[in-house]
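Entry 14. Structure prediction run on the chain below.
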Amino acid sequence: MAMGLHGHARSRRGRGGRAPMAEINVTPLVDVMLVLLIIFMVTAPLLKAGVPVELPESRAKALAEEAQQLTVSIARDGTVYLDDAALAPGELAERLAAIPPGSDGKLPLVTLRADRALDYGRVIGVMGELNRAGFTSISLVTVAGGGAVIAGSGGAE
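Output returned:
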C-alpha cells in the first residue's frame, strides 16, 4: 500500500510537480474585442439612414456627428424622407415646423442626402424648405473616393 502512494507521488513529480495552471490568457480576447469595437465604430454611421441613395463623390473632410441631428434624404425618384419616414409632397414643411428646438434653443443639425442623379433644382428646393423652417445648419452628405461617408458643411443662411 505504501508502494502505491509512493508511485503516485512519483508520477506527479514526473510531470514537473506543479499544480495545473488555472489562469486564462486574456490578451487574445482583448485583441478580438478591440477589432470588433473598431468595426462597429466604422460601420455604425453607415447604418444610420435606411434610404438607398447613390451619393456623389467628394474629397471634403469628415465632420463630427452631433447628438441631435435630422437626416433628410431625397431618393432617385424624388421622394423626400425625414430620417426613414417617406413624406408626401408638401409634407416636409409641416413636419419640420413640429420639431422643437433643443435645450440650448437651437434647432438640430440637418444632414441632407441626395441621390447623384437628381436635378440640382430639386435639391435646392428642399434646402429652401429647410431654410424657411429655420434650419440654417445643413450638411451635405457625400461619398469619399474610398467609399466612406463624409459630410461636407453647407450653411443655408
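The first strand starts at residue 69 and ends at 74.
Filed with the rest of this week's runs.
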